[in-house]
């Protein structure tokens, strides 16, 4: 068995696609009416469809998981983030862990938690 992808819930696929393209360079591979497949295994599912599938409300910023990216030029990434998305909501701004890794954590526009850290 092989993990093929991971899905996050978003309010607007196109807005989310732009966000993940602008910051991480992810490209759209398929658009299946409310379910958009991006490169690197990320799938965007529009909230209205996900709510129908589950029969439950969606809870943004639930902090139950995060998307993790690595970036050697973390300062450059933070500048790009602040330039393109100045209203981003941070969990923590750029910090250094005791083991030396530098990380920043923030929410995407739909409340999905993202961490970007220097390679370990």
CATH homologous superfamily designation of the largest domain: 2,3-Dihydroxybiphenyl 1,2-Dioxygenase, domain 1
Highest-level CATH class of the largest domain: Alpha Beta
Note the overall shape.
globular
Within the CATH hierarchy, at the fold level, what is the topology of the largest domain?
2,3-Dihydroxybiphenyl 1,2-Dioxygenase, domain 1
Low-confidence stretches: none
Strand order of the largest sheet: 1-4-3-2
Our estimate of the beta-strand percent is 25-35%
Q: Class by helix and strand content?
A: alpha/beta
The count of domains is 2
CATH architecture of the largest domain: Roll
Mean pLDDT level: 96
Structural description of this entry:
By secondary structure, the chain is of the alpha/beta class. The chain has two domains: 1-59, 2,3-Dihydroxybiphenyl 1,2-Dioxygenase, domain 1; 66-120, 2,3-Dihydroxybiphenyl 1,2-Dioxygenase, domain 1, CATH 3.10.180. It is 26% helix and 34% strand. The chain is built from three helices and eight strands. The chain has a four-stranded mixed sheet with strand order 1-4-3-2. Strands 5-8-7-6 form a four-stranded mixed sheet, covered by helices on one side. The radius of gyration is 15 Å and the shape is globular. The model has no long low-confidence stretch (mean pLDDT 96).
Essential attributes:
120 residues, alpha/beta, 2,3-Dihydroxybiphenyl 1,2-Dioxygenase, domain 1, 2 domains, 8 strands, globular
